[in-house]
Amino acid sequence: MLLKTTIQGLATAVKGLTLTVRHLFSARKSREQLDIKQADYFDKQDGVTTVQFPNEKMPIPEVARYQLDVEIDDCIVCDLCAKACPVDCITIEAIKSPEAIGKTSDGSVKRLYAAEFDIDMAKCMYCGLCTVVCPTECITMTDQYDRVTTNLADLTYTFADMSEAEIKQRKEEWTRFQAEKEAAKKK
């Protein structure tokens, strides 16, 4: 019994070593350099088959989910994306406007200013829920995936384009409008 299991163990080890040695010698020759866009790129070739990044890049699927981007001119600051985000990586601060401030590319009326619209990509889990709930489709997934940094603060992207002075002015306008509205009610 002991002899039988010893022989089986040695036979298994020889099989594994044979496979390893065969791969070792076949990997000594490098494969033919093909452009990644060629149709036969993924056909099996003998030799080393590593994609030589960054010189070669894998094709990106059309439905892939990578870096988020916001077209702030189309944003109606509805806050649905921030509410849908399961990891709370989207921060939005809205300032109300007394009247309509414009229209988006799909014709939606804008009534809120985006004082703050930040996305912390270090927290983002790339689920795409924010893009699904956006009524104006202003938040989208791009094909950017190789943004690397050593500072986590660099991964917080700011999309709002209002200055501090403009934010203060818009808040004062809204406060004044509310005060005038209350005064008109009391009359």
UniProtKB/TrEMBL annotation:
<keyword id="KW-0408">Iron</keyword>
<dbReference type="GO" id="GO:0051539">
    <property type="term" value="F:4 iron, 4 sulfur cluster binding"/>
</dbReference>
<dbReference type="GO" id="GO:0046872">
    <property type="term" value="F:metal ion binding"/>
</dbReference>
<keyword id="KW-0004">4Fe-4S</keyword>
<feature type="domain" description="4Fe-4S ferredoxin-type">
    <location>
        <begin position="115"/>
        <end position="144"/>
    </location>
</feature>
<keyword id="KW-0411">Iron-sulfur</keyword>
<dbReference type="InterPro" id="IPR017896">
    <property type="entry name" value="4Fe4S_Fe-S-bd"/>
</dbReference>
<dbReference type="Pfam" id="PF12838">
    <property type="entry name" value="Fer4_7"/>
</dbReference>
<feature type="domain" description="4Fe-4S ferredoxin-type">
    <location>
        <begin position="64"/>
        <end position="95"/>
    </location>
</feature>
<protein>
    <submittedName>
        <fullName>NADH-quinone oxidoreductase subunit I</fullName>
    </submittedName>
</protein>
<keyword id="KW-0677">Repeat</keyword>
<dbReference type="GO" id="GO:0009060">
    <property type="term" value="P:aerobic respiration"/>
</dbReference>
<dbReference type="GO" id="GO:0016020">
    <property type="term" value="C:membrane"/>
</dbReference>
<dbReference type="InterPro" id="IPR010226">
    <property type="entry name" value="NADH_quinone_OxRdtase_chainI"/>
</dbReference>
<dbReference type="GO" id="GO:0003954">
    <property type="term" value="F:NADH dehydrogenase activity"/>
</dbReference>
<keyword id="KW-0479">Metal-binding</keyword>
<dbReference type="InterPro" id="IPR017900">
    <property type="entry name" value="4Fe4S_Fe_S_CS"/>
</dbReference>
